[in-house]
Amino acid sequence: MSIQTETMKRVEALPMKAQQDLLTYIDQIPTEPASPGYTAALLQRVGTLDPIDAQEMMSAIEEGCGKIDESGW
Does this model's pTM top 0.90? Predict the structure, then answer.
């Protein structure tokens, strides 16, 4: 599966608010890694997970911890 296909599949699964946040984030990333501000644009997003999303992630982790899907590997 291509990166574009996998990315679209994952984006489509996100809630609309998360899709909008992702689009805002993407707009802030310079197109060339060597361009000025590339690292700064990425670092601005570090730690920007809002409390609701953080709680949802923590709940999902807690629900999944200790469970083994023997057919999953």
Answer: no
